[in-house]
Amino acid sequence: MALSIVRVVELAGIYPSSFCSMILADFGAQVTRVVWDREYFPNFVNRGKKSLALNLRTPEGAAVLEQICLQSDVLIDPTPEGALGRGKILPEDMLQKNPRLIYVKVSAGVDLSSKNSQSKGHDINFLALSGVLSKFGRKDEIPQAPPNIQGSTIGGGVLGALGIVMALFERAQSGKGQTVNVNLIEGTAYASSVLWYLQNMDYYNKARGENLHDGGSPFYQTYQTSDGKFMAVGAYEPHIYEKFLKGLSLNPSELPKQMSSPDWPRLKTLFADIFSKKTQAQWCEIFADLDACVTPVLTFDDISQLVKKKGSTSFIMDQQDVVAPMPVPFLSKTPASVPSTRIAVLGEHSEEILTKYGFRKEKIAQLLDLGVIKSSKSTANM
């Protein structure tokens, strides 16, 4: 796979960094996840990774990590104080000892004011401090945060993986690594750049829930069907809007102009009433050949049933028999692959990893006796 020669060390900590390294693992990177006493997140973010149980709060543990990093390409560190620093090894020293290392710092700090700097948070906080949350929600209602997609997953995980790949590409030319700073609030803002550029344009400069794409317009909206399901409408372009009206058996000449925003509430009521008279399946049949950007709102259960019955190139059954999206983008020469093996238990590969990085059996046994590492090899094989 594309990243098969890349060695990545991930220090367990927060979801964005775990998702970031999962992307790298999906595309073939050799990811070692370093964690000590417990896993922080659902197991899916650990797929394709090997587990090293290492106590970084001890000098011996920090020394082990240092030796591993001297032979690695990427170190992902999501801890506020820096896990290397906790063991009295500074990232700057590590970069001096291994100039090819790419040190990835994942943080939630923000420089808007000293009060907010270094603050902890979750996806809703990243959205709030980046200004993005103020755009999500219905008219005259409180801002509503979507699931952890915009901030943690895209602003942290996806942009973090992109930064690492760019640093690897640059290293191929210069021979030297660098620091990649993944700030979750700044990443969230960057992933939402379109909102900043649209805010001064017509049909985007009104209050939340009154604009073209935030629930304000009747032709970019969801509507409930007679069987309690939903249809999604994205008939923004004029020629698409005409096809949409055709599917509803409406005459454009008898309706207000499409972009007459004062009439949007009335049109939404009209469209909602029409959609409520047929089932989702009936509406799918009506719009099947119209190409009007009208689609069913599929649930996860809907997709899971389709995958199990007919198979899919977009979704797979993972190691835990859970339907999950295939890694993208699709590469024709070196495609990604989700491993068929189960997800590792904590410390399952501790001895294997240390052996690969040059530790002798006697040293590994000593580290086990001192409680610097833990091995779950015997448990994993049961």
Please give a quick description of this structure.
By secondary structure, the protein is α/β, with parallel strands linked by helices. The chain has helices at residues 15-26, 59-69, 83-86, 91-97, 123-129, 150-174, 184-191, 193-198, 238-247, 264-275, 280-287, 300-310, 350-356, 361-370, 377-380; strands spanning 7-11, 30-35, 49-54, 74-77, 102-107, 179-183, 220-224, 230-234, 294-296, 315-317, 323-325, 373-374. Strand 10 and strand 11 form a beta hairpin.
List the helices and strands and how they pair.
Blueprint: E1 7-11, H1 15-26, E2 30-35, E3 49-54, H2 59-69, E4 74-77, H3 83-86, H4 91-97, E5 102-107, H5 123-129, H6 150-174, E6 179-183, H7 184-191, H8 193-198, E7 220-224, E8 230-234, H9 238-247, H10 264-275, H11 280-287, E9 294-296, H12 300-310, E10 315-317, E11 323-325, H13 350-356, H14 361-370, E12 373-374, H15 377-380
Parallel strand pairs: 1-2, 1-4, 2-3, 4-5, 5-6
Antiparallel strand pairs: 3-12, 7-8, 8-9, 10-11
Folded structure, characterized:
By secondary structure, this protein is of the alpha/beta class. Helices cover 37% and strands 14% of the residues. It has helices at residues 15-26, 59-69, 83-86, 91-97, 123-129, 150-174, 184-191, 193-198, 238-247, 264-275, 280-287, 300-310, 350-356, 361-370, 377-380, and strands at residues 7-11, 30-35, 49-54, 74-77, 102-107, 179-183, 220-224, 230-234, 294-296, 315-317, 323-325, 373-374. Strands 6-5-4-1-2-3-12 form a seven-stranded mixed β-sheet, sandwiched between helices. It has a three-stranded antiparallel β-sheet with strand order 7-8-9, with helices on one face. A two-stranded antiparallel sheet has the order 10-11. Helix 5 packs across helix 7 (184-191) and helix 6 (150-174) crosses helix 7. The relative contact order is 0.13. The model is unreliable at 378-382 (pLDDT under 50).
